[in-house]
Specification:
The complex is a heterodimer of chains A (288) and B (163). With 288 residues, chain A is mostly helical. The longest helix of chain A is centred in the C-terminal third of the chain and has 15 residues, at 191-205. Helices cover 57% and strands 0% of the residues of chain A. Chain A is built from 16 helices and no strands. Chain B has a single domain (7-161), classed as Alpha Horseshoe (Leucine-rich Repeat Variant). Chain B is globular and about 45 Å long. Chain B starts with 6 loop residues before the first helix and ends with a helix. In chain B, 48% of the residues are buried. The chains are: A mainly alpha (288), B mainly alpha (163). Chains A and B meet through α15 and α16 of A and α5, α7 and α9 of B.
């Protein structure tokens, strides 16, 4: 198997970020669990992805995926663990916190992509008890967070760890420590890492300084960076960005999804007919 | 120009077609079948923005069955904004749009459900007779949709249409 960078959606992301896949439902949960130990390794890999997408609320699926985190049979030429990667990704989507401990153990895997998937999934599971295990992946700061020679990734999955800390550390006993670990990454040479740090710093401090850095990123020359900034702004629900999001030079679908994040965040403590909610919906209507 | 695979040029062409308004409708409808997929999507966007009743069937088909969510959203919005002309067929045509939008309001994709509600609100603004049925549908969505953002759009539609 070729070693390559895969997104959190296991190489099967929707082309349009507003869509949530609804096809591929030909399997059943029981069949997919059985397929996790099928002799054909590619079917196992697919089953792990499928369970993450369609097996929400199924304890047996979670247990089968946790077992797959220790798989030794599916190896790449470089020693990676494809099935473990997909199982780790799937466990983040299923929302069962029994997976926290085995995912924390995956943070010490030799495989970068297993560590990355585990960090992403821990961020999604929302259990602050994993913060102390995530912080050491940022040890050494920017100097340590450099590209591994000959590989398409950094020494550690910094972006994923920064995002997870932004979700988990606010309000936790390690909040101050997290700020100290995250803040230096605002000056990392890679814009994506800078944005992930700005996003986490906004969540940790609620300071507009960091929200505004993400707004500035909407002016980036590179459309992929503009899209990344839209995604980050939506994820943290930075309301002052609304007008800049609506005007960003990207496809409407990315802007719609970003504004949806702002609105969802706003609705946590406001009514659907608040002035800001109505404004956000008028911006969204124009992007349809 | 719509078929040149040049998004910037196509966007300019779509804007021009929209500015021409009604005059664009027949030529676009007549050449729709000759276009490749990309050009067809731009043509549908132009027809959705012009919102001429003659494009009704094309917009219904695009809103319900097109491959691309972005084209479906544009067509769904366009259905709600059709500039109705008083004639014998208008009532049944509006019923057709209502039925189509209610169907789309139960799509698996939140952005289409959202677009359908925006379309229903626009339809209610244009067709007062349909307001009770539209408000009832939006209340159902408000109570049953799994996405808070879609619920919020339904709430806004109810508030906007209620006297």
């Amino acid at each position: 198997m070729v070693e390559h960078y895969q997104s959190s959606d296991a190489g099967l992301p929707p082309a349009d970020p507003t869509t949530e896949g609804t096809d591929e439902q030909s399997l059943t949960v029981e069949a997919a669990i059985a397929q996790l130990t099928h002799p054909d390794l590619s079917l196992r890999y697919y089953a792990a992805w499928w369970l993450g997408k369609f097996a929400a609320g199924n304890p047996a699926a979670v247990e089968a995926l946790m077992a797959a985190l220790a798989d030794e049979s599916d190896r790449t030429e470089l020693g990676g663990y494809p099935l473990r990667r997909n199982a780790a990704r799937a466990l983040g989507k299923l929302g069962d916190r029994r997976a926290v401990l085995p995912l924390v153990q995956c943070l010490e895997s030799d495989d970068f992509y297993v560590r990355e998937a585990a960090a992403q999934s821990l961020g999604m599971l929302g259990d602050p008890s994993s913060v102390p295990a995530l912080l050491p992946l940022l040890a050494g700061g920017v100097a340590a967070a450099q590209r591994v020679p000959g590989r398409p990734h950094l020494a550690q999955p910094c972006e994923a760890v920064l995002e997870a800390l932004g979700n988990l550390a606010p309000g936790s006993p390690q909040q101050a420590a997290a700020i100290a670990f995250v803040e230096p990454f605002l000056t990392h040479s890679l814009p994506r890492v800078q944005y992930a740090a700005a996003r986490a710093m906004y969540q940790l401090t609620q300071s507009s300084l960091y929200g505004d850095r993400l707004v500035q990123a909407l002016q980036s020359e590179d459309i992929n960076l503009r899209r990344a900034a839209l995604s980050d702004l939506g994820a943290v629900g930075y309301l002052p960005a609304a007008a800049a999001i609506a005007q960003a030079a990207t496809e409407n679908s990315f802007k719609l999804f970003s504004l949806k994040g702002l609105l969802r965040h706003h609705l946590h403590d406001h009514d659907a007919h608040s002035k800001d909610a109505i404004h956000l919906m008028s911006l969204m209507d124009q992007l349809l | 120009m719509l078929g040149y695979n040049n998004p910037a040029a196509a966007a300019v062409a779509v804007r021009g077609l929209i500015q021409l308004g009604e005059a664009s409708v027949l030529p676009l409808l007549q050449s729709l079948d000759e276009y490749n997929y990309g050009a067809r999507a731009y043509a549908i966007r132009a027809l959705a923005a012009i919102a001429d009743p003659r494009a009704l069937e094309v917009l219904v088909a695009a809103a319900e069955t097109d491959f691309a969510p972005s084209v479906r959203r544009a067509a769904t919005k366009g259905l709600g904004q059709i500039r109705w002309q008083a004639n014998a067929a208008v009532v049944s045509a509006q019923q057709r749009v209502l039925h189509s939008l209610v169907t789309i309001a139960h799509d698996a994709d939140w952005s289409l459900r959202y677009a359908a509600i925006a379309g229903l609100q626009a339809l209610g603004t244009a067709a007062a007779d349909l307001v009770p049925a539209i408000v009832e549908q939006c209340r159902l969505i408000q109570a049953s949709d799994g996405d808070v953002v879609v619920q919020a759009r339904a709430t806004l539609a109810v508030i906007t249409l209620s006297p």
